[in-house]
Design goal:
Number of domains: 1
Order of helices and strands: HHEEHEHEHEHHEEHH
Strand order of the largest sheet: 1-7-6-2-5-3-4
Helix content: 40-55%
Oligomer: single chain
Shape: globular
Largest sheet: 7 strands, mixed
Low-confidence stretches: 177-192, 276-292
Radius of gyration: 19 Å
Length: 292
């Protein structure tokens, strides 16, 4: 018990140190890069664009695998690396497992994906400002769909030719908890299961469908890859992560909209590691129905 606490504390301290170092490198390096980029009209690629990938690798092998002893188990069909535009969708990870979620995308799909982020994150000193300066994130206002689509279009045109993958974390895929509507701190529980990968309400309406369609219109050759990730048991603190297995399930999404038929059976086949606990998305739907 004491060893778990020691390992968790050490992982937290080392992880914060690694994150701070890479955030400074990204911030300073990308700022210095802006001048030659402007002079050459954007012909020079940002040499610091691989910094997030290197941060993911360092965090995984040092903190998660090395100190905490976390192992990653892959399910489903791992997508082949192809030279076509990839739209990557994944669920929100718990707070302390976010680097693991990022590592999965950069390790198995693309090393330099552009991350879609809500506008509120723009001024974040770690995941906001450095990513904006390095042109590795597209920020958009979720409350205004028209404005969001325009922001996405402008952002993709700006990074055209530099990247070939974008990452989206749809709302409704946050960690499961009954308190999620009243407390964001309660999201530090077991990562959501795989039901969202086949939940037609999520894919056939709302911002996810709008975003995917807009991306596919801008990119003639494209593919949609979804992956669900999380622990198979409740994880509320870093100490609970010691020695645990982190599960990942990949799925190539071929058709829009999705059909309700056989959706539950496919979900069970894809993610046998996840339990049948009610997902956050379903909880939102129930609350909305009651208030109507």
């Amino acid at each position: 018990m004491y060893m778990k606490a020691i390992r968790a504390t050490l992982a937290l301290i080392v992880g914060l140190g690694i994150t701070a170092v890479f955030a400074v490198i990204m911030l300073v390096g990308s700022s210095v890069f802006l001048l030659p980029n402007l002079v050459t009209f954007g012909l020079i690629k940002n040499p610091f664009a691989f910094t997030p990938w290197l941060w993911n690798e360092t965090m995984y092998f040092v903190c998660y695998r090395g100190i905490l002893g976390v192992r990653v188990e892959v399910h489903g069909t791992v997508p082949e690396r192809q030279k076509i535009f990839s739209i990557i969708l994944s669920n929100h990870a718990i707070t302390f497992a976010m680097p693991l979620g990022f590592w999965i995308g950069t390790r198995f799909i693309h090393r330099r994906p552009v991350v879609f982020q809500k506008a509120e994150n723009l001024w974040n000193p770690v995941i906001g400002i450095p990513m904006w300066i390095g042109r590795m994130s597209i920020f958009f206002d979720r409350d205004d769909r028209e404005m969001a689509v325009r922001s996405i279009s402008r952002g993709l045109r700006r990074i055209a030719g530099r990247y070939s993958a974008v990452t989206i974390n749809p709302d409704g895929t946050r960690p499961t908890t009954k308190k999620i509507l009243t407390s964001r701190l309660a999201s530090r529980t077991r990562t959501d299961n795989c039901a969202w990968m086949r939940h037609t309400s999520l894919w056939n309406a709302g911002g996810t469908l709008t975003t995917v369609r807009a991306l596919r219109e801008l990119c003639i050759a494209s593919r949609v890859i979804a992956y669900a990730h999380g622990f198979g048991r409740p994880v509320r603190t870093i100490r609970d992560m010691v020695g645990q297995t982190y599960h990942v399930t990949f799925r190539i999404v071929e058709n829009f909209p999705l059909h309700e038929r056989d959706a539950q059976n496919e979900t069970r086949t894809l993610c046998r590691w996840a339990n049948t606990e009610m997902t956050a998305w379903q909880h939102f739907q129930i609350v909305d129905d009651r208030s109507a």
